[in-house]
Design a protein that fits this description.
The chain is 76% helix and 0% strand. The chain is an all-alpha fold.
Length: 80
């Protein structure tokens, strides 16, 4: 059973149009996904910068030196 050339041409044209439409939808989906990834990474970077700035503004933690020294001092009966 042979398919006439008109039908074959119609099928080929329809497939080409469907493929072009599908390719357009896929490229739009990829572009949207890339934009969402960029946006989320920018938001994460902004959040990290805010946290760094907040930590800079806080008063630095200080250690009491005498307690630190007594904690790590060797007993006098142990030789070096």
């Amino acid at each position: 059973m042979s398919i006439s050339s008109d039908i074959q041409e119609f099928i080929n044209t329809s497939l080409a149009q469907k493929n072009a439409a599908l390719l357009g939808q896929i490229s739009k989906l990829v572009a949207d996904s890339a934009e969402n990834i960029k946006r989320s990474s920018v938001e994460a970077a902004d959040e990290q910068l805010r946290e760094i700035k907040r930590l800079r503004r806080e008063e630095p933690k200080s250690f009491k030196r005498s307690k630190f020294r007594t904690r790590w001092r060797r007993p006098s009966h142990i030789s070096r």
